[in-house]
Amino acid sequence: MVVSKLDLHDECMIERLALSSFRHRWRTLLAWIALVAAVIVGGSALAGDFANGGRMKGTDSDAAYELLGRSFPAEEGSTVSIAYSAKAGLQSAAAQEAIDTFITAAEAIPRVDQVSPPAELSADETVGVGSLRVTGTNEEQLETVDKLRAVAKASASAGVEVDYASYAFVEGGLNSTAEIVGVMAAVVILLLAFGSIVAMGVPIISALMGVAAAASLVGVWAAIVPTPEFTTQVALMIGLGVGIDYALFIITRYRRALAEGATAEEAIVEAMGTAGRAVVFAGSIVMVSLLGMILIGLEFLNGLALGSATAVLIAVLSAVTLVPALLSIMGRKIGKRAVKAAHSTKETMWHRWARFVQRRAAVGAAIGTVVLLALAAPIMAMRLASADLGNTAKDGTARIAYDRLADAFGPGVNGPLIVAVDTPSEAAQTQVAALESALTKTPGVARVLPPQFNEAKTAAQIVLFPTTSPQSEETSKLVHRIRDDIKQGPKITAHVGGQTASDIDFADLMGARLPLFIGSVLVASFVLLMLVFRSILVPLKAVLLNLLSIGTAYGLLVMVFQWGWFGSVFGVEQGAPIEPWAPMMLFAIVFGLSMDYEVFLLSSVHERFRKTGNNSEAVVEGLASTARVITAAAAIMIAVFGAFVANDLRSIKLIGFGLAAAVLVDATLVRMLLVPATMELLGAKNWWMPRWLDRILPKLHIESTAEGAFERQPKSVDSLAPTPKTVDEPTVLTPVGASRAGRS
Fold first, then answer.
1. Which is nearest to 272 in space by CA: 295, 290, 300, 246?
2. Model pLDDT for residues 163-183, shown as the tens digit of each residue
3. How far apart are CA 614 and CA 82, in angstroms?
4. Which of 54, 443, 711, 715 could bond to 736 as cystine, CB 3.0-4.6 Å?
5. In this structure, are residues 735 and 707 in contact, taking their beta carbons and an 8 Å threshold?
6. C-alpha span between 340 and 345 (Å, rounded)
7. Angle of CA points 685, 689, 694, to nearest 5°
8. CA 293 → CA 109, 223, 300, distances in Å?
9. Which of 603, 644, 592, 650 is nearest to 626 (CA)?
10. Which helix (H) or strand (E) segment is 464 a member of?
11. Could you tell me the sign of the dihedral formed by the alpha carbons of 411, 413, 419, 423, in that order?
12. Mean pLDDT, to the nearest integer, of 112-120?
């Protein structure tokens, strides 16, 4: 006998949607395939260019940009510094001929102009610095880069080596290797978790379809709002991780219900009434965290926030529609192993571990807290700044150019500063010479080029070179010192700009606005958790523990990427500052993902506490029932994120390492030690909430209260097939609250 109808109330939208997808499995699958195909085709047609940077309105560097833009002829494209090098010297006839040949060949490339010979030579005349300009869209500039590489190789054979000091020429970059490695690792973990190729295939298929759509939509966002190029990589990283994890949580609950005697339709309703609701809620918190980046107020980050949140949204939609359809198609094959496992009454190691922690709750809480605080301690030394080309691969043309120019002319040649001066009157014009003299005498300035006025002499620009590299803390101090001196000097309007100054302003701005972003996300998450779990201490504890996880990730980033500890293991050649956007991005993603595990664990504990009223037993059973799946989910996340550490781009390597480290800490020390220890110490107070507050707050539920269980007898494996199109007469199902045959 099979079920033809389940009595679902109107408010159970998630369950009804999943059940509809389950019953109309082929129609749902075909709809998803058509949707993904349409998104890929449409996204390709509507995709825009990625942004290389963003305006930071209100900063001194932006004021310099505005002044120079108004006063000097606007020039499209990007300026690229060139390092010419010849062992026999650049003044030789052969070298001069090779340079002329290079310039002719470079200028013949479409969208390349203003190619200059060496404007300045090193003391031994073996290294010279020049420049060229590349115009066109980002895609066109990438094509131009490849052609310029070929021209440089031809020049090397003529005796003059030409290298380009620009991020556009950094080898490697974004590639699909990390995604492939992450997916393969996830396949192995899912096989170990499910013991079934069929069960393993459902999360992989749903996640891959989700990220295919998300990657295309990132391109569409790029056409609407400024979007960094690495948004696609970040969206793929997040989409793969949460897509596989969300499907894993739902399938685990579905198989458990099958093993306890449910029909296939009953099992999908129960899975969605518990794990499905938790997925929607957890995904909402992840999206809130990611969209919180918009509060930073930088247009450059809006596309990153929207693109990443889109990947999570698609993962949630896939989990509640595509996954049920795939489960229906797989039929009885999905639950064979689960039937045998569910009827075992043997206490697992997770039961024993939970009771062990409870017996030593105070000690466990103290040890876990001390370890996390020790790992987070380096955060006090974190310095936010943009890493320069000196951190790229040593054999790449960008790094070679950077090193040669730094050795010949000093490290500051790779990060010039531009002082833009407003000279609307003759009195202001006379102050320019005095400003030039003052800049020359400023400590930390290597040299200053003569001022250049525009034709109307209403503005001037002074280019100066620091004695230190662009990423150096001394360079940052120099920029602030020059700005202070300008304010305190003669009455003249001047601003310090250029790429290096913009990077410094970006770091300062991110550091100043990060507390607002973090505070907003914490408050929003606390309120959402309080509404669901009807408690003050549970959400407060969850927020604090997640902060510890993130603090630990920050501390580990400082150790590896800033201090260079174990750098060779992770492909980090030397210590460098932490990218200014990384702490914000890490917080947004890690806080959301940490809440994923928190929600799945707490929802299981809360479900049992509502039934038994025994906090200690609820914690034991909640931990034991979720530990295996959370461990598998965390292992998948670590594998996916860790695969990105092998990326050539330092920024992607940094974010991949930070995410993998945070998930590892969160799924072990936090979920398996601190959460059960603190919940045992707090006892029934975990679920305390003032009555007046409980009355006025709206009620949200993760666990379904309408279809929690149905009375039935355990079924054989053969009865786990999906509902056929023609059904027998309806079977009457009687809700019996918490009772169910075979449930532990």
1. 246
2. 999 888 887 655 566 667 777
3. 71
4. 711
5. yes
6. 11
7. 155
8. 40, 19, 10
9. 603
10. strand 459-466
11. positive
12. 90
